[in-house]
Input
Amino acid sequence: MLFCYFSSARSSGQSNEYIFSHLSAANGLSNNHITTIYKDAKGFMWFGTISGLNRYDGYQFKIFKQSQRDTTSIVDNYIEQVFEGPNGKLWIECRAGEYNIYDPATDRFDRNYVAFLRKWHLPDSRPLHIIKGQNSFCFV
Output
């Protein structure tokens, strides 16, 4: 009787099988040493590595790396954390404790995170975490 129950429950319910993909440098990831993972509101998966920030759309990676000649590039390739902040912008914490604010509309980084904090009347100190609520953000 128990066998029939599981059999009928399985056929009428959702499958318990999950499909996994193994992503690595062979698939385009900038480095196999992943330091952080984040899924944004648009469904992109973000992988911080020791050699760049990687955005994955389910098919391919777009890699963001530091460039000495481009002040709108990320400040450091060693990524510590990724948080979502106000206005759909991502806050990227790098190894030196510096934040870069990624604007998906321009596909560029702003290295002056202190100006954003001042805009919201927050202290100039480095946030440890950003928590997204229903209609607000909490900077810890």
In short: Strands lie at 34-39, 45-49, 52-56, 61-64, 79-84, 90-94, 99-103, 108-110, 130-132, 137-139. Residues 1-11 have pLDDT under 50 and may be disordered. The domain at 23-139 is CATH 2.130.10.10 (Methylamine Dehydrogenase; Chain H).
